[in-house]
Specification:
homodimer, alpha+beta, Translation Initiation Factor IF3, about 35% helix, about 35% strand
Chain lengths: ~100, ~100
């Protein structure tokens, strides 16, 4: 399970480290956030993680999508950021 | 100038249309947002734009970055989402 759940109070550096670690190991990470504060933290963490991974020669990009999640019997719309190495002839880490 | 500035009150459908139009024409768009509400609107718009473009066979991904912008003599940190077609053998629209 490569899903990282982010809240408005998540520490960006911790989330960034988690994203980078999962991408290094599994070549794909998913970051889920519900609400503006959480989405903002998730995107900031992704900026940091992108920088960490670039130092390792791994160039990632993300595709955002909506996801319906049920929390305490209520359906809410989450933002899910799917993070993967870019496919590129110059990116030796891309599969 | 392919920069789209998004605020917390921007309509996501309008921003999504702008992103899709600029990517179709210029193969690259930048979406800038300052603050959690604006970042949330920008990401939601990007989900919609990704769907619009996918219908045209254009598969985009984004790389987020920080950018310092000066507004009324104050430096603020913006989030900038760089949106480009993914490089892929199956993506005829990618350059």
């Amino acid at each position: 399970m490569n899903m990282i759940k982010v809240s408005a109070t998540s520490r960006t550096a911790a989330v960034a480290g988690a994203i980078a670690g999962i991408v290094r190991e599994h070549h794909r990470a998913e970051v889920q956030a519900i609400g503006a504060g959480a989405v903002n933290q998730a995107v900031k963490a992704l900026v940091l993680a992108t920088g960490y991974l670039r130092l390792d020669g791994i160039h990632v990009s993300c595709v955002p999508e909506f996801a319906d999640v049920t929390i305490e019997d209520k359906v809410r719309t989450a933002i899910r950021l799917v993070v993967e190495p870019e496919y590129s002839p110059n990116n030796s880490e891309a599969s």
